[in-house]
Amino acid sequence: MTALTVNGQAHRIRIAGTETLLDVLREQLGLTGAKRGCNQGVCGSCTVLINGMAARACLCLAGLMGDAAVTTVEGLGGDGKLSPVQQAFVDTGAIQCGFCMPGMVVAATALLAENPQPSDDQIREGLSGNLCRCSGYVKAIEAVRKAAGAAGATR
Amino acid sequence: MPEIELLRAKSVDDAVALLARHDGSRCIAGGQTMVAMLNAGLVDASALIAISGIDELATLTRTSDGATRIGAGVSHRVVASSDKFIGANNVVRQAAQVIAHPAIRNFGTIGGALAHADPASDYPTAVIAANAKIEVAGRSGRRSIAAQDFFLDYLTTALKPGEMITAVELPAAASGSAGHYLKFSRVDGDYAIVSVGVTITVAAGRCSAARVVLGGCGPTPVFDPDADRDLVGGTCEPAQIRAAAQRLAGRADPIDDVRGSAGYRRALIPKLVERAVRTAWLQASGASR
């Protein structure tokens, strides 16, 4: 049995040799927020935080997580409340089919933790690894700008 | 496919011993390439030796003479934001800044990227431009391989079975030197269609040393000592750059793929070489004053 800490909760689970973090999250822990899109690290829909840093859950082996703190989209808010980034995505209507959104929200959370007042270019770069097949990027960028409280600073 | 065993190495010696003990085993560090290949069913390994917990591999140091040693397990994120690169060696730091996306840069490592040896990736081109040496460990100890001799073919390196990369050593950058890495791609974070790594040293207003390397233009990075010599002795004027670019284009053997045709890549070479060389030249000229 291997220890794995997700959203502040310690689990003890059985992990097969090269099982990915994404598969363990979705199939063993029932956390289906992180999506399995390309399974190649390209689409970004599986993005989670590992010790606060954005990570591709599909490219991380669950057995190598050690005592790292994993945060999924389910763990961003608390007590039934949305996080500021989640709320901004809702308020902006930055959602089409929704498949890529958990990854976008987590990537935006990591971006704002590191750079609380990003320029539009920095937001675009921060989300560049998250593909939206509906091509709904404009609202997503607007949502991050809103979450940063930088709505007026159109640079 | 049979289950691949996951083993953890505590030290380089431990990792080398595990590689020797498990026939057909491979190292895994950040996993950003290895796990993608595992997911695609492309890894034929009996075991993966995790080297991410080895302290020695996680160190990035600069010696007093200006040389830089990058442990194989150092992430692109750390290289990209490090202040331990001076002069020409910045070509490597700049390459790290444009590898894939933030989430990949957080965990991908220089050792993993070099061992993978994708000619369209950024580090192989940059480390050759920086005249780096790649330190590897095996059962008979450690040895250093010049970066320009390290890449043998597409996804093929000079690593022997049972060997692993331990560090990348960048020689002390000359005073008056500068490095520049220019990546051309249509979409941010994609592989390069063509990339150029350049290092230039300026002494007494003239180019005293140069190195130009192309990525994405063949099975391995493309370089030519004669092209480098074309740039030496002058002020990197257009005719010199054209001559160097023409030589490199002659050595290039690009492929047609989804990102661009071979002809398109060839057409890009002169323009991108000019841009990259001029940028490095101006920086080096500024630094030499």
Concise structural overview:
The complex is a heterodimer of chains A (155) and B (289). Chain A has five helices and five strands.
General description of the model:
The complex is a heterodimer of chains A (155) and B (289). By secondary structure, chain A is an alpha+beta fold. Chain A has two domains: 2-74, Ubiquitin-like (UB roll) (Roll); 84-153, DNA polymerase, domain 1 (Orthogonal Bundle). Chain A is 32% helix and 14% strand. Chain A has helices at residues 21-28, 84-92, 101-114, 120-127, 137-147, and strands at residues 2-6, 9-13, 47-50, 53-56, 69-71. In chain A, helix 2 (84-92) crosses helix 5 (137-147). Chain B is an alpha+beta fold. Chain B is built from eleven helices and 13 strands. Chain B has helices at residues 12-21, 34-39, 76-80, 90-97, 102-107, 110-116, 123-129, 147-150, 225-231, 238-251, 262-288; strands at residues 5-8, 26-28, 47-50, 60-62, 68-71, 133-138, 141-146, 151-153, 156-157, 164-170, 177-184, 194-203, 206-215. In chain B, the strands form four sheets. In chain B, strands 4-5-10-6-7 form a five-stranded antiparallel beta sheet. In chain B, strands 1-3-2 form a three-stranded parallel beta sheet, covered by helices on one side. In chain B, strands 11-12-13 form a three-stranded antiparallel beta sheet, sandwiched between helices. The longest helix of chain B has 27 residues, at 262-288. The model of chain B has no long low-confidence stretch (mean pLDDT 96). At the A-B interface, strand 4, helix 3 and helix 4 of A face strand 1, helix 2 and helix 5 of B.
